[in-house]
Give the backbone structure.
Amino acid sequence: MMIRVGLSGLLALSLLLNQNLVLAAVSGLSITDRQLISKQRVSRTAIDYTYTLTAHNTGAPLSGVVATVSSLSGNTVIQQAEVVFGALDSGSTQSTETFVLRQDRRVAFDPADLVYTFTADVPAAAAMPALSFEPVKIFRFSWTDVDTATHYKLLENPDGKSGFTQVGEDIPQDTESIDHVVPLYARINGQYVLQSCNAAGCRDSAAVAVSGTLVGSIGYVKASNTDGTYYPPQFPGEYAAFNSDQFGLSVSLSGDGDTLAVGAPEEESNATGINGDQGDNSAKNSGAVYVFTRSGGVWFQQAYIKASNTEEDDYFGRSVSLSGDGDTLAVGAAREDSNATGINGDQGNNSLSGAGAVYVFTRSGGIWFQQAYVKASNTGIWNIFGVSVSLSGDGDTLAVGAAREHSNATGVNGDQSDNSALSSGAVYVFTRGEGTWFQQAYIKASNTGRYDFFGASVSLSGDGDTLAVGAAREDSNATGINGDQGDNSEKNSGAVYVFTRSGGTWFQQAYVKASNTEGINDDADFFSRGDGFGAAISLSGDGDTLAVGAPGEGSNATGINGDQGDNSTLGAGAVYVFIRSGNTWSQQAYVKASNTRTSFDPYDEYPTGDVYMDGFGTAISLSEDGDTLAVGASWEDSNATGINGDQGNDLTQDSGAVYVFTRSGGTWFQQAYVKASNTGGSYWHLPDMCVGPVAYCWFYEYGDEFGGTISLSSDGNILAVGGGNEDSDATGVNGDQSDNTATYSGAVYLY
């Protein structure tokens, strides 16, 4: 690009392209004066004029500055074009060597015909930056400062094939390191270049490639009062026991990914409300929720939250859901016992065991408050109201599952009083207006059946107008969309129901089944428990993409849209993706793990054929646009750690894994295989202390079950994964993962 200027005009810019350089404009330079020092007639029609130039630099210091003079007129010919200024400090003015032009005497010389094109030395290339992996989710780049650079640019090629683009803003001179926060599972093939730059241009360093499993960058989050205590037998004949918090049994990220809520339903303190005393463990399994926030890339615990009516065995924190901005939190306590109904009823009467409750909290100025105590409109014993919860993006719509509710009603707002359909399940929808909550709808399946567990999972779209409900033990043999609901020959095959809201009224839009529906048949293998389609569900923000987990599905397929017909890997699990166009739903993909298998215990000295099921689809989460899908397989068995480790062994039973998939042009691909940074599996444990026969002291310690719960931020760039059985005694963020003395205390991992 060239800009025409006069003697007192602005800088004429040119773009410079040399080996190892990028196109850049030399900014800050201008010609402020031109002095005629001689003229000489060279022919009858031409005169040579010799001038000096004065240049001024308003930008950063430059070296090797050269002005090349050219003319836009054929009557003015430049005889000596290059004028060397050399080094120009910031704010300096310099007169220098001459240039000569030859002018046709018959035509008047127009100074505006002159163009000055500046070039300057670009800085030396920075050395290839050193890359280290730091928590949480940080790639740290370090280099030696280049004297001649005025700034740097970090370029990223996220997957090794998309090409390089700049990360963030220009990096100031004298900087020798920068932290770049990344979605770990999306940078496993990343490449980075550091450019050293000045006004003349930029020079590339050698590229640095991401390698390894990125364990060092994984965030590791524990409770502030981590507890998991083993109790050996105290007298002969007594069995070993333990108390465990199971921190991470539920997780939820806000839309922006800056707030994380973690449930620990077996936490034991008798505190109530916000930030109470965590030290008195006299309320066994009362439960707690921990809220963490991120500021400047650093995570810290913001609040320790308990129910307003903390009681033993309430399991507060069994489910959690955050609004998009993270300022509203819903917490399920599926075994809370009060007989209250509706909003803010009497919490003091514990006459209905396992009825369940939900608590809504709001945040203002970093402080949390309880806003509502929510009960079903037909509170009943062991309805487990609150076993699942979901908030809309604005936090003003709340869906609550009560998977063991008993009424035989069907559809929306039916008769709640006939409890002849045991554990058929129900969902309750509440809305908030001006800080007050109301029940809007009581929702049942269109084919209510005993023990269907309708409401075991729920998911709302961002606007709250689409609701998906899982019934993992529904029994029909239908396949696909809106099939025959009447034939219950495939026990526990599972189903999902989609409802939509218009003008405050809810309607069922679709009855969704797997493409390969299968349940428990009379001649089923002992280990078959049905596919459990609907055990986990997730809707995209617009409600047009639905992912459904079936952790009991048994095909041996791997990857996307494989063969569904061979059921030789019982309990391997599958996920089904559906899309909506208008009001019509269709299946888009059948998704399996990359290492589908049913394994056998490699440490069993006397093999009994015990089957270990991976349970792919135990937990799922979609990004807001529906193009990123995370799937948990909490019983997967490999001993890998970090990202894309070795999937090929079964050496850590029930350690768990997560698989990340992405969609492009309607086609799904597996992006990453994700494991914990401290993968731990199942084993038989004999403690140091033992009273009485040794046989009573042995206990089987389950694996960490990483992937039992997962949550993605709206943009899919943050993934939180719970491992409710993890055993370390660390507290807070990024503590020591190596001491496994707190059995089943639980942990959450950030990617």
Remarks:
- Confidence is low (pLDDT under 50) at residues 1-25, 523-527, 600-612.
